[in-house]
Design brief:
With 384 residues, this protein is α/β, with parallel strands linked by helices. It has 16 helices and eleven strands. The N and C termini lie far apart (55 Å). GO terms for molecular function: monoacylglycerol lipase activity.
């Protein structure tokens, strides 16, 4: 079982804080090579450290240590999503998070990116790809949440039958949420007693092989309020937006992933034009932790992508003007232009004010010593 690393410097990364309307987002970034950014998006009850085994595996591959060939991950942006890791909550709606992450990448000097999302982070990766098609070159999904999770969230009875492990975790989070402040000492007791390792067994193919760093991270990131808020955002999310994705989307999940529904891959294939998935026979929900080398190989197309796929005239129109109504109830939708130069985020998004404001509040990233770094961010105010 892989070890989760918390020392960013040993991986060639440094910590920065980017203030946005979605909150102060903590990112660990670096390994610059002047190319496409690799944005890593963790799932619920996790943080940026989820991806450290994949980074280590990519370095081993570049050295030939795993018997294969490959390149180290470069231009890495490993995000602590709002409500998780060092990024404070609350957990906003997915559209707000997506716009904030795009702003983070831009603030770090990137105009193009590939997106890698684990579990609920896959929702965000696909949402960004749909909203920023000119800037997304490919999407990789690791053990992604799909239609099965949505059905379980929308119909608990169906969920209990189809995905009992997820339904059980959801119930546990609701119970812990009801305990309030008393939940923290309980979680600490479960970790010290080794009970948390037992409770986490459904998430892994080989739970007895879980490294202490993994179980400790799970204990630290079990945040009932954040989990329930993220689940609610997934419940109400409209996956029809994924129809707009035209870049390659590659997915990999463990054969023993108890959070994957029977029809998840078929549902994504119906939504996404260029979709393919791979099942790893000896992994569970945390495939990138249990088998990082296999995951790296399965997502080789994503890591090698360097430019968005060619689009039809219609898709080029979509890239200029997505026109998505996120809030139908209020009926107040404004046009928001982000950037005007060809190298900028030249998109007209029909966004509700709450989302447009998330883009307007982009600020310069702060290093650990809280010194602002100069960043060029083109944001034009809402048109009246």
């Amino acid at each position: 079982m892989s070890t989760l690393h918390t020392d960013a410097a040993t991986l060639g990364l440094r910590r920065s804080v980017v203030p946005t309307a979605a909150g102060h987002i903590v990112v660990h970034h670096g390994r610059e090579a002047g190319g496409v950014a690799t944005i890593l998006l963790h799932g619920a009850a996790a943080s940026w450290t989820t991806w450290t085994p994949l980074i280590v595996a990519s370095d081993a591959a570049s050295d030939g240590a795993d018997g294969g060939h490959g390149e180290s991950l470069t231009d890495v942006i490993a995000i602590d999503l709002p409500g998780w890791g060092e990024s404070a909550g609350p957990v906003p709606e997915i559209a707000v998070v997506s716009c904030a992450i795009a702003a983070v990448a831009r603030s770090l000097g990137y105009r193009q990116w590939r997106l890698i999302g684990h579990s609920l982070g896959g929702f965000i990766a696909l949402d960004i790809a749909a909203r920023f098609p000119q800037h997304t070159v490919a999407v990789g999904l690791v053990s992604p949440s799909g239609s099965g999770i949505q059905r379980a969230l929308r119909n608990p009875i169906v969920g209990a039958a189809a995905l009992p492990a997820f339904s059980g975790m959801l119930l546990a989070m609701r119970m812990l949420g009801g305990l309030g402040a008393a939940a923290l000492p309980l979680l600490n007791f479960l970790r010290r007693s080794g009970a948390l390792r037992v409770l986490a067994r459904p998430l892994f193919r080989h739970p007895r092989a879980i490294d202490a760093s993994v179980s400790d991270a799970l204990a630290d990131e079990i945040r009932p309020r954040a989990f329930l808020a993220a689940a609610e955002q997934a419940r109400v999310y409209e996956t029809s937006l994924w129809n707009r994705i035209s870049v390659p989307v590659r997915s990999v999940h463990g054969e023993h992933d108890v959070f994957v529904g029977a029809g998840d891959s078929a549902a994504m294939r119906r939504r996404i034009r260029d979709f393919d998935d791979v099942s790893l026979p000896d992994a569970g929900h945390y495939a990138a932790v249990e088998q990082p080398t296999a995951v790296r190989k399965a997502l080789a197309d994503v890591f090698s992508a360097s430019a968005p796929a060619l689009r039809t005239a219609r898709n080029r129109d979509d890239a200029r003007r997505i026109g998505v109504k996120l809030h139908r109830d209020a009926g107040k939708v404004a046009t928001h232009r982000v950037g005007s130069a060809p190298s900028g985020l030249a998109l007209d998004l029909n966004l509700p004010p709450v989302v447009a404001n998330a883009l307007d509040h982009v600020a310069t990233p702060l290093d650990d010593d809280n010194r602002a770094r100069s960043v060029d961010v083109d944001v034009v105010k809402l048109k009246s």
